[in-house]
Amino acid sequence: MDRIPVYVRAGAVVPCWTQAPPSTDGYHPTEVELHLYVPHEDGTRSSLLQEDDGLTLAARDGARYRTSVTVTRAGRTVTVRADVDGDGYPEFRRTAFHLVVHGAAVDAVDLDGTRVPVRDGVAVLPNTGEPFTVRFAV
Question: What are the boundaries of each domain within the chain?
């Protein structure tokens, strides 16, 4: 068996690393995948991603990026809004999110007013810890 089934609620955004490291000790990726499972019905769903040093409790004092992702479907339009809080941390290396859309064929997305093509099912969203909004039609 080369696949493991994963059951994900429609509207969820599941963050993943683009590749599995041999160890998570000291691993701070430059790219993070955001797997978006397009909701079937109108409404709003939320997900959360927290990035921190992985070793200390400094995140409690704001040494982190906490990205709250809200997915809203209204008719054929899907909007993904990411709000960010935190002060960052020295080991942070991310330069982009890779948005992987499941449940809809999308050829491009609108990232804060800029058209971003979807290639091989992935839209590369440059991001170093800032809020953003993505829209696309399904």
Answer: 13-137
Q: Give the Cβ contact number of residue 127 at 10 Å.
A: 20
Render pLDDT for 121-133 as a digit per residue (tens, 0 to 9). 899 999 999 999 9
Single-letter amino acid, residue 54: G
CA 132 – CA 79 distance, rounded (Å): 10
Six-digit token string for 74: 């209204």
CATH, domain range 13-137? 2.60.40.1180
Burial of 15 (0-12, 13-18, 19+ CB in 10 A): middle
Q: Could you tell me if 37 and 11 are in contact, meaning their C-beta atoms sit under 8 angstroms apart?
A: yes
Question: Is residue 1 scored above 80 in pLDDT?
Answer: no
Pick from 100, 35, 90: nearest CA to 63: 90
